[in-house]
Write a structure and sequence with these properties.
binds protoporphyrin IX containing FE, about 70% helix, 8 helices, mainly alpha
């Protein structure tokens, strides 16, 4: 993937405004609510039976932060996202058996959270750079399935 200086700047400008704990919690909560079948992967997290339970679940809170922190690390390795996420991809494929379609869903939910949070700063140009990063992220996480 080739990144222009403008794209890198846009992606970093978005990430500077992200709070991995708060926004991670919101992203994972939304994923589990909007796509309820994703709950099946988190059977060890306890009660996910309704929105209030999901939103108040400490493990969801902790895991949302973990996921967004990994995305932040991937941004720091933007010139080799595929290599950086190779082990994490294999883990999702071979140990966790996560359907890779769900990576795209999570990435889309994160765009909604970011758009709501950033407001007018999430310009079409910034969003385009972010969507390109999302595509690289989803491809990298899906790579270990093949
Ligand atoms: C675990 C990142 C998407 C299900 C993890 C871990 C990270 C991570 C960093 C911890 C790995 C470890 O402890 O070694 C990501 C990223 C994603 C993503 C960056 C997408 C952008 C998903 C999706 C699902 C999922 C969409 C399911 C719908 C899981 C599960 C675990 C896990 C079940 C193990 C949780 C546990 O028992 O602690 N993920 N993940 N992941 N992920 Fe993902």
């Amino acid at each position: 993937v080739h990144w222009t200086a403008e794209e890198k700047a846009a992606i970093n400008s978005v990430w500077q405004k992200v709070n991995v704990e708060k926004d991670g919690h919101e992203t994972l909560t939304r994923l589990l609510v909007v796509y309820p079948w994703t709950q099946r992967y988190f059977s060890s997290f306890g009660n996910l039976s309704n929105i209030t339970a999901i939103n108040g679940n400490a493990k969801v809170h902790g895991h949302g932060k973990k996921v967004l922190s990994a995305i932040g690390e991937a941004i720091h390795h933007i010139d080799d996202v595929k290599g950086f996420l190779a082990d994490l991809s294999k883990k999702h494929a071979r140990e966790l058996h996560v359907d890779p379609e769900n990576f795209k869903r999570l990435a889309d939910v994160l765009v909604i959270v970011l758009a709501a949070k950033l407001g007018t700063a999430f310009t079409p140009q910034v969003q385009a750079a972010w969507e390109k990063f999302n595509a690289a992220l989803v491809a990298a996480l899906s790579h270990g399935y093949f």
